[in-house]
Amino acid sequence: MATLVLTAVGTAFAGPLGAFAGALVGSRIDAALFGPVSKSEGPRLDDLSVQASTYGQPVPRLYGTVRVAGNLIWSSGLVETETTKVQGGKGGGGKTKTTTFTWHVDCAIALGKGPITSVRRIWADGKLFRDEAGVQKHASALRVYPGSETQLPDPVIQAALGPADTPAFRGMAYIVFEHLELGDFGNRIPNFTFEVVKGETATVATVIEDLFSDADIPFLDAARTERIDLQGYAIARPTTLRSALDPLRSAFFFDMAEIEGVLEVFPVDGTPTAKVPGGHLAAHPFGTDRPRTFEAKRTADLELPRQVTVQHLDPARDFQANSQRARRSTLNSTADITVDLPLILGAAEAKAIAERMLSIAWARRDAVTLQLPMLYLHVEPGMKLVTSLEEGRERLLRVTRKELRPPGTVLLECETDGSSVLTKGALAAGAAVPAQKVLLPGVTVAHLLDLPMLRDADDDAGFYVAGNGASAGWAGAVLFRSRDGGINYDPFLDLPTGAVIGTTLDALTPGPADYWDREASVTVALLDPGDTLASVMEADVLNGANAALIGEEIVQFTSATLTAPGQYRLSGFLRGRKGTEGAIATHQTGERFVFLIGGGVLRPVVETSEIGVARHFKAASVGTLVSDAESVEFTDTGRALRPYAPVHLAGRRDGDDLVVTWIRRTRLDASWLDGVDAPLGEEAEAYEVDILDAADTVVRTLSATTSTVTYLAADQIADFGAVPVSVRVRVHQLSARVGRGMPTEGIL
Prior knowledge:
This protein is mainly beta. It contains nine helices and 44 strands. The longest helix is centred in the middle third of the chain and has 17 residues, at 347-363.
């Protein structure tokens, strides 16, 4: 007796072929196909969707291109990094110490049986981590081992375990992450999935040959399955050979039968093996009663499927699950069947499979039993016959079971063929997922700003920092500082959000510092095209709106006109704000633009001893290496603590004595309460007045505690040999913390 080992569609609808399993017990092919276990399940859609870390986990067999989660086979454990940042102290107020912790890990993840061709995309917790071009979001080192028989141990694992205890995992493809920062993943190893390519071209024959060769089963591929392209398939669980082949058989409609010790693969749409004339039907031994010409049974409508749903892995959905349905317009059936095909199938291909499954189930509803003479002994299960069961009508039958009936007849159990529906195609609407891109953090542009005090609360040792990135993947940065000339860098300041910064496209022309500048204008290009500027009323400007740094000058503006994407024309200025009038005439094209309102501008507090010391800084975008960031040298001169330059410098002669006067200004935004003088803003009122000669050399310095000083005639004669007609003077207000403030200079 011979029976089909696998029948196309039959197991999908009726379950395991338990009816004939016992008849094959003891055969070598049966043992390989069914295995020693009493219950076995084949591959499932979600077998490779969740990363595991299980000892003894089976190594998946991969074919074509698939998305796998893998199995964590080694980990260093979470490695903690403690970072302490200290700000302030030594004259800059009390020290603030902040300690933060970050974690990273080294780990290895097994992908499947090797050798593989490549790893394309990588997802972490469902988000694209590395694209097909090899661009990845994090700067962690990544090494792919294809699973060759000659691959060497990974050096990171070897350093952790020792050379004698480190396996090379030969024959298994795996991937190693080195120094994987875990902050973006909740301080845990994320669920990684990988697009793995094993061979650029795969066919159904690739799987059959691989499995049968490993099981040492002789086979004959009469179905020519090497012509059936296979996008991708993975076997990730312990299963029997038959269960592993079930999804392929169901999707691509081929059968298998053992014939004389060889497992033959039959095409469902093959040509008939024989034509049975009516006279050969109802064969029986001489002297016995003639049996019925044939026996026929028809499956009732209620037992046939109304709808078939094929669940599959869709490459257009990044290999996530999708489903396609085929439905029959009938009122007599209510059976809805779902077929789980863990294959990589396009939507249209899966839809066509569902249509064919539904059609062939109805086409094969008729079962026919024939009793034929020994002339048909060569006919085996899976083969086809043409016979005339009714006069004048030929029917194409497919043999499902063969039994030799002594003393000389062959019993063939058949079903109507229905293979004509296998040419049926289908169209399916795509259900693509939104395209993902690896949004690289890119470079951080950071401006370290030695500016006047912007807020009264900033009356301490410190400076301002404004940074941002132009890349869509920029998610903040860390500013690192070196105290040893750029050799070693330590975290100094977090830049969690970006400031609105850019570059001028032309030069801001000089203008007045004492009233509105309604003539000048300048165009700025913002670094982040998503940032915006807005126009405001003059009253808003007077209340502090639209403050910006252009070059070294702090300005405020009323008008911001969008001239191109990310570009604005600014006008309606108040110039030289916060004592920066000295920079009004210094502008040029390509200067920095920093919007000082609305966030992103930070102020780290430093020790007073840091004032005047040149330090190297690096701004590294989150997810990049510090070593890749550009180093810049910056000196905090303590500008925020320096008094503004006095104004209204004047001189008059009292005899030959020169009386010098000026009006001081204040760094504070405090109200002008007495209507006479601005708040002092310093510990004590003190000034130094330099007397300069024609070579701009200081010949004498006078001190004062009020806004006037007298340059005596005797001192003038001592300095110049006679009382000069005019004298060049330079006046500084003094700070108890940083000494001289900004100067004002004039010829009196």
